[in-house]
Amino acid sequence: MTQEAGYHYQVIRRALEVIDQGGPHLSLEQLAGEMGMSSAHFQRVFSTWVGVSPKKYQQYLTLEHAKTLLSERFTTLDTANSVGMSGGGRLHDLFINWEAMTPGDYSKGGQGLVVRHGWFDSPFGEVLAMGTDRGICGLAFSDEMGRDAVFADMAKRWPKATLLQDDGTVGAWVNAAFGKKETKLHLIGAPFQVKVWEALVKIPSGKVTTYSEIAEAVGSPKAVRAVGTAVGKNPIGWLIPCHRAIRKSGGLGGYHWGMPIKRAMLAYEAARSEA
Question: What are phi and psi of 126, to 5 degrees?
């Protein structure tokens, strides 16, 4: 990922804050002026990042957009399964293959596992990427929580693993992940968590589903709260698209790496899908 991608996200992030304060009816000139940019420059940044006008994007950034997604772009996981969306197929515009850690290995807390890591720019701000020799095991976004909190959060998930900084190896995986190229994931979690994460991977880009639908899909229809917890503990943001899980009411629910990032991801995907 280039520094330009990170810069564009910072513009979007600031725009979200301005829209929250001033409402979705701000003009292009007002929105650009609030961020100290010319209208033309602001328009170019938006077009490069998402492919639609700032005015259209304002609609995607509003909280009401979640309800629109739910009514117009809701998808059941049974449907996803029926059309052949699985871990080995083309999912949410990315090629993903996953391999899950066995329950026995998980219980060891990552003992004997080498996890490489590095910090990189992404379309959604700075990201901490982590991976084993089997693939990416962590993508965490730091803009809302800060570097120290994000690193501590990820490191404690595998307390006995050996952590090594390796920007070269991990950087290649990150470029593939955000460049829509074949990407391998190493899911490291408890068995129920892994089942939930596998269900999330089957939600297509530009679509959403509900926590209750995920509970149905994993064979535990009454475990909606447990599903929500598992979604929140997803260590691989973006690639395992927990941002596409919302409440049955149309509310966005939560997002471990910060609600502005979740809203930006949903808006980014919806806008690109429409474009």
Answer: -65, 140
